[in-house]
Design a protein that fits this description.
elongated, alpha+beta, 5-stranded antiparallel sheet, 16% strand, single chain
């Protein structure tokens, strides 16, 4: 294996040296690595180049001789001489650099005494060399003494040693330069890593709101990390306040905890972990988690305190918020059902007798949600909560225990007290409204006067009383709400108001021709007026849009029959009308909406409203088109008869209702 040291030897200088040595001494030389590769050479004997190395058999002998010559020296032998099979003498000297045998210096192709000519004549004959030329080449091989060879090799080795020393210096210098370069690179890398680690540490402390501190007990000197400065609101470029001033950073109660723990740590070495309420420079309060430990010297003496502090203000506030939300209603801020059950156990004591319970229910909340949206419903609940709070005493506890249900616990309150507060709440509620709908609250109460009575029974009595009142008030309230909804819809769109009245009149005319009795005709009239009540929930821009509706807007509009049904079905007197409103966009062939009813399964009144509604829509001016003439509208009704409309109603409408109108016109 070739040593890497050979990569640094100046073989150009070596070649020049060997060539000069050959010319001056007639010694042939070569340098070979340990694998037998020639690195440098000068001169070869003619007998070798022209004869021995050319003939296959003698060349094989040369190879064997090279192998034998290349073997390790025996003992302390410096020069290894060898007579080759072809009859010449060679010598090998190992080249050792820094204790490593890296190559060999060869010389030879000479005799120590006059050669035996007969041996070489036999060789010429055996290997078919031209004898005279072969013997002439033999005559050029020098005969030298062993001492002369050793002297020449010593001289050559000394010269080579100069080159070798220069090589060693070159190697050492290169290795030293490489070591320095690697050391500098490693140092820069370590410095960069250290800087990166410090940046990561500071960033981690910032993200975690975590600061560190150290207190030297001998000097009372305090050292803070940058994040700790920020946590207390101090400038990091200014030294932190001395330990004696630290009490100002905490509330008195928290400082008592911390100072007690610090004294135990500095005297006994006991570590501590606390959650403390802090006071920052601007006077605001926060919370910190702190942990401290003592550091001892080799003799076991406590010399310093070290600790960490983490800003947990957000966590503490979140915990407080969770505690608050676990016992409070998120919308009204009143106590919730969970706290009601806990408070009831606490208040239900003989010392609080008599205890009155008032139950409340908001009338029409669902109607408001369906008509005006949940934001209006939430506003109604907030108004109710505020109204109840105004009427109650400071010692009373108010709870929202359901969607529209409230309850008040009144300790040391008689039946008269409960009645007075209940009436006051009704009075205050009558003055409040949301979306033009009056706030209406049904209530019921009962009073526990004896410890033997069950508080659960008192609550049940109050609830039953409330529901009785609610039944009396609900119908009237919802009827008023329906009127209000229609007025609100008409206010949103004058076109809808005029359209509803015309549809109502046309429907009544159809009903009259179909011999509807007075009650049925009146119901048809009202159905015509309120058939589009569900449009109260449609955005005003969509209702009054001048151009054609988009797919999303059309989808929104098609929801109005279901919305109208929900509004009306909650009221007894409008429950039958709810079915008419729900189905007035169903089609005779079943392709209508919302339920795809077909033929006679569609209520008769809804089929009548459908024809009246379509005719009025076609013959009325719209912002995106002109009104159709009566003739064109009739053609369209006729075209859709049996598919969209009941054919009998269309026939009656065209032949009797419209003809009467034309005749009277």
């Amino acid at each position: 294996m070739k040593s890497k040291i050979l990569d640094y030897i100046d073989f150009e200088r070596a070649n020049a040296l060997l060539e000069g040595f050959n010319q001056s001494t007639d010694f042939v030389t070569a340098i070979l690595d340990l694998d037998g590769n020639i690195l440098s050479k000068s001169g070869w004997r003619q007998i070798c180049t022209d004869f021995h190395r050319k003939n296959p058999e003698t060349a094989f002998n040369c190879t064997i001789s090279d192998i034998e010559l290349g073997k390790k020296s025996k003992g302390n032998e410096k020069y290894h001489f060898y007579k080759c099979i072809n009859g010449l003498v060679d010598v090998r000297v190992p080249i050792v650099i820094r204790g490593e045998h890296v190559a060999n210096l060869y010389s030879g192709q000479f005799f120590f005494e006059a050669p035996d000519t007969s041996f070489f004549k036999k060789q010429a004959e055996k290997f078919e060399f031209e004898e005279s030329s072969y013997l002439q080449a033999l005559g050029k091989v020098p005969v030298v003494t062993k001492e002369k060879v050793e002297l020449a090799m010593n001289f050559l080795l000394e010269i080579l040693q100069v080159i070798i020393e220069m090589t060693v210096e070159k190697i050492e210098q290169k290795e030293l330069t490489e070591i320095i370069r690697e050391s500098e690179a490693a140092l820069l890398k370590s410095q960069a890593q250290l800087k990166h680690n410090m940046e990561d540490l500071l960033e981690s402390q910032r993200i975690a709101h975590l600061g560190t501190w150290r207190l030297d007990l001998a000097t009372n000197q305090v050292v803070w990390s940058e994040e700790l400065y920020k946590m207390y609101g101090f400038n990091p470029t200014v030294p932190p306040p001395p330990y004696t001033e630290h009490m100002k950073l905490f509330t008195p109660e928290s400082w008592d905890k911390l100072s007690t723990s610090l004294n135990q740590t500095r005297t006994l070495g006991i570590p501590y972990e606390l959650e403390l309420e802090t006071v920052t420079v601007d006077g605001s309060n926060g919370w910190m988690w702190v942990h401290g430990e003592a550091k001892q010297d080799s003799d076991g003496n406590i010399v310093s305190l070290h600790g960490v502090a983490q800003d947990i203000t957000e966590r503490k506030r979140a915990e407080e918020q969770l505690v608050y939300l676990s016992y409070h209603d998120h919308l009204t801020g009143l106590y919730n059902r969970r706290f009601f059950e806990l408070a009831l156990k606490s208040i239900d004591a003989e010392v609080n007798l008599p205890i009155s319970i008032i139950m409340f229910d908001i009338n029409g909340l669902k109607l408001v949600n369906d008509s005006f949206g949940h934001d209006s419903g939430d506003a109604l609940l907030i108004k109710a909560a505020e109204t109840i709070k105004k009427a109650c005493r400071e010692e009373d506890s108010i709870f929202r225990i359901g969607g529209d249900e409230f309850v008040v616990i009144l300790p040391k309150a008689t039946t008269d007290d409960a009645l007075q507060i209940s009436n006051l709440i009704k009075e205050l509620a009558s003055k409040e409204s949301v979306a033009n709908i009056k706030l209406s609250i049904s209530s019921g109460f009962d009073t526990k006067t004896s410890a033997l009575q069950s508080i659960a029974e008192i609550i049940a009595n109050a609830e039953n009383c409330m529901y009785r009142q609610k039944l009396l008030e609900r119908s009237s309230m919802r009827s008023k709400a329906i009127d209000l909804i229609m007025n609100t819809l008409y206010a949103k769109s004058k076109r809808e108001a005029a359209h509803s009245k015309r549809v109502s009149n046309l429907a009544m005319s159809i009903g009259a021709k179909m011999n509807f009795n007075t009650d049925a005709a009146n119901q048809l009239r009202i159905a015509g007026l309120i058939h589009d009540i569900g449009k109260i929930s449609i955005d005003e821009k969509t209702l009054n849009k001048p151009g054609a509706l988009s797919a999303e807007e059309r989808k929104e509009i098609e929801r109005h029959p279901e919305i109208g049904w929900r509004l009306l079905s909650s009221t007894n007197e409008f429950s039958e009308l709810a079915q008419i409103v729900l189905n007035h966009h169903e089609k005779w062939d079943g392709s209508g909406y919302p339920n795809g009813l077909k033929g006679s399964k569609i209520p008769l009144e809804a089929r009548i409203i459908a024809v009246a509604d379509a005719y009025d829509a076609m013959t009325s001016i719209r912002s995106y088109r002109k009104a159709l003439s009566n003739e064109d509208a009739v053609k369209e009704l006729t075209r859709c008869s049996g598919t969209q409309f009941d054919p009998e109603i269309v026939d009656l409408f065209i032949k009797q209702v419209l003809s009467d109108n034309v005749a009277s016109g």
